[in-house]
């Protein structure tokens, strides 16, 4: 009798647990049924593909005239290239949102609805930096979706994607938000999108499709996946709806997107740099380079400053700064909070407009002691004139040799690096270098700024106490 009661209680417990678990899962059928009609399948055709120069335009001026004809684009007879993606209708008058990479280079764009209606779509505008595109179709009684608040979603919330993975029309998949504000640079190493990371199954063909919250509102646009197989492994990334709405409004109004521009080269702050710069913990974006005449330079921002707040928003990592600056309207004057030589400073900067054809920064001996390399273990010399011209640098010293086991080697310096700053002192020549080295304290972490392969980098260096 006791055994039968125990079995009965166990069955009741299992049934209760299963029921409770089921009640904890979201019911998605109504959401999918109501919103699928506004999700579209996009088919594109590229009839004539032009070969593209592999050499950037700013370097083509160095090509001898006799070889310039090799750089001219040539038309080749090719079969039309077809591709597909997803999108969604945002207004009754036929505006459709998708990814830029879905329609990039297309000669023909057609959308198909769940009711089998097909429309030819016109590309109103594209924005490669955010990977968004706005299309327009002419039709009656078009279903639409609602925008949601992507700023309010939290890690762990349920989200639903609808699209056409591998051409399988109007497929739905669900998961949770895995992380917010992911920084993923594009092919041009630009980073203007704080992506929403999810574990929703996203595959080729889902690109440009909507990501819904449980209220049936679009909180993101599916854009990228991380994969080793070509399919979903549970790492997908969506463009936040708040950013997308601003981009769409600008594309609709003027066919282009204007972004804020500061004109700085930045890097992350690690634990050692934070200590050397007077920060309690690693935070902010460290300014490694300033573009001449940029808004940052005009505002008084200096190389070596650590920007911790911009327009009231906290800058935790270097990736946060492009996100905030990019969505600031050009011409706006905003407050900037930064750390300089261990002290907090407040500045005001008038944000510029990001150039449409964004040019990068101009990238960027005698032994110093009878003891090879001196206290830093570095053999340096003035930069030869021909190297200055080739690298586009004017000041600094060239590292010729790094002595193993000494401060320079421990800081990760290599032969060929160009040192531009030691501690908080600028190094313009070998004479400056010798003077600065003599004053460096022992046993303290100090910032060092150098160029490697044309890229500025901050690290820390420490002279061991004897």
From TrEMBL:
Gene3D superfamilies: 2.30.42.10, 2.40.10.120
EC code: 3.4.21.107
Location of the active site: 101, 131, 207
Pfam families named among the record's database cross-references: PDZ_2, Trypsin_2
Binding site residues for substrate: 101, 131, 205-207
Domain of life: Bacteria
GO biological process, one term: proteolysis
Domain PDZ stretches: 246-315, 365-431
Signal peptide: 1-22
SMART domains xrefs: PDZ (SM00228)
Cellular component, GO, one term: periplasmic space
PROSITE patterns: PDZ (PS50106)
Matching InterPro entries: PDZ, PDZ_sf, Pept_S1C_Do, Peptidase_S1_PA, Peptidase_S1C
Entries under SUPFAM superfamilies matching the protein: PDZ domain-like (SSF50156), Trypsin-like serine proteases (SSF50494)
GO molecular-function terms, A-Z: serine-type endopeptidase activity
Cell location: Periplasm
Keyword presence, Metal-binding: no
NCBIfam families, sorted: degP_htrA_DO
Role, per record: Might be efficient in the degradation of transiently denatured and unfolded proteins which accumulate in the periplasm following stress conditions.
Family as reported in the entry's similarity comment: Belongs to the peptidase S1C family.
Name of protein: Probable periplasmic serine endoprotease DegP-like
């Amino acid at each position: 009798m006791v055994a039968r009661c125990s079995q009965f209680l166990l069955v009741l417990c299992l049934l209760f647990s299963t029921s409770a678990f089921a009640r904890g899962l979201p019911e998605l059928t109504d959401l999918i049924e109501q919103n699928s009609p506004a999700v579209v399948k996009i088919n594109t055709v590229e009839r004539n593909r032009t070969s593209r120069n592999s050499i950037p335009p700013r370097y083509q001026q160095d090509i001898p005239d006799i070889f310039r004809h090799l750089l001219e684009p040539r038309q080749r007879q090719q079969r039309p290239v077809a591709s597909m993606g997803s999108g969604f209708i945002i207004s009754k008058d036929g505006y459709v949102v998708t990814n830029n990479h879905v329609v990039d280079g297309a000669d023909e764009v057609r959308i198909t609805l769940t009711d089998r209606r097909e429309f030819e779509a016109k590309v109103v505008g594209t924005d490669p930096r955010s990977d968004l595109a706005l299309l327009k179709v002419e039709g009656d009684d078009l279903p639409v979706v609602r925008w949601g608040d992507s700023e309010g979603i939290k890690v762990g919330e349920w989200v639903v994607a609808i699209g056409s993975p591998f051409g399988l029309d109007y497929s739905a998949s669900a998961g949770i938000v895995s992380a917010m504000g992911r920084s993923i640079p594009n092919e041009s190493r630009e980073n203007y999108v704080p992506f929403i990371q999810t574990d929703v199954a996203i595959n080729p063909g889902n690109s440009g499709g909507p990501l819904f919250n449980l209220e049936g509102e679009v909180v993101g646009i599916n854009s990228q996946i991380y994969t080793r197989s070509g399919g979903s492994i549970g790492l997908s990334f969506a463009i936040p709806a708040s950013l997308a709405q601003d981009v769409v409004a600008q594309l609709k109004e003027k066919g282009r997107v204007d972004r804020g521009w500061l004109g700085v080269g930045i890097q992350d702050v690690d634990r050692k740099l934070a200590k050397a710069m007077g920060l309690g913990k690693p935070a902010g974006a460290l300014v490694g380079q300033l573009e001449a005449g940029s808004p940052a330079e005009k505002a008084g921002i200096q190389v070596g400053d650590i920007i911790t707040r911009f327009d009231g928003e906290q800058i935790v990592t270097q990736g946060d700064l492009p996100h905030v600056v990019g969505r600031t309207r050009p011409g706006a004057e905003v407050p900037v909070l930064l750390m300089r030589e261990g002290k907090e400073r407040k500045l005001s900067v008038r944000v510029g407009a990001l150039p449409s054809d964004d040019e990068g920064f101009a990238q960027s001996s005698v032994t110093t002691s009878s003891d090879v390399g001196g206290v830093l273990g570095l053999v340096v010399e003035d930069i030869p004139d021909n190297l200055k011209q080739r690298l586009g640098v004017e000041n600094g010293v060239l590292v010729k040799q790094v002595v193993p086991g000494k401060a320079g080697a421990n800081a990760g310096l290599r032969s060929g690096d160009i040192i531009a700053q030691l501690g908080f002192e600028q190094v313009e020549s070998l004479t400056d270098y010798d003077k600065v080295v003599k004053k460096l304290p022992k046993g303290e972490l100090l910032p060092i700024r150098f160029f490697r392969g044309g890229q500025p980098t901050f690290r820390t260096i420490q002279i061991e106490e004897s």
